Q: What sequence folds into this?
């Protein structure tokens, strides 16, 4: 099947590679079928809708950023995705890239779960976690300039 996209032009899609979402991505209820495409770097991928060539999400594996990132889906979510354990799933988070590079962020609170074997996916919300909705990828860097000594400061001020 061929899909006309705004981001990648016309691409050939293998229907056996289509991931069907059992629950939609928040705010995109009418889009349930996606494919994974290579992203601009090794740890980024595109989640391209096959229902609309205009809709593609940039996603990342959160463990590439935070190796300790862990979640335990509810038993009904594992069943919904035809998975036995969380190890059966690929876990991604949505990435937002605004014009200001210091504002690039990912949503650690609402990961995308994909069972690659059965080609099922869904977005879940981690109710009982401290992961933030907006985790900024550009963390503040320590200053490289030395503080200047103040010559006119009073010690009794």
A:
């Amino acid at each position: 099947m061929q899909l006309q996209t705004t981001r990648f032009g016309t691409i050939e899609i293998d229907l056996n590679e289509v991931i069907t979402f059992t629950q939609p991505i928040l705010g995109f209820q009418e889009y349930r079928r996606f494919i994974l495409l290579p992203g601009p770097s090794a740890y980024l991928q595109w989640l391209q809708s096959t229902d609309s060539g205009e809709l593609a999400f940039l996603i990342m594996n959160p463990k590439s950023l935070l190796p300790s990132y862990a979640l335990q889906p509810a038993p009904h979510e594992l069943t919904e995705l035809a998975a036995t354990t969380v190890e059966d799933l690929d876990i991604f988070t949505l990435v937002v890239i605004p014009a200001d590079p210091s504002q690039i962020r990912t949503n650690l609170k609402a990961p995308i779960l994909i069972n690659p074997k059965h080609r099922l996916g869904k977005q879940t919300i981690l109710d009982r976690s401290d992961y933030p909705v907006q985790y900024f990828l550009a963390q503040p860097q320590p200053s490289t300039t030395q503080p200047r000594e103040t010559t006119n400061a009073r010690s009794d001020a």
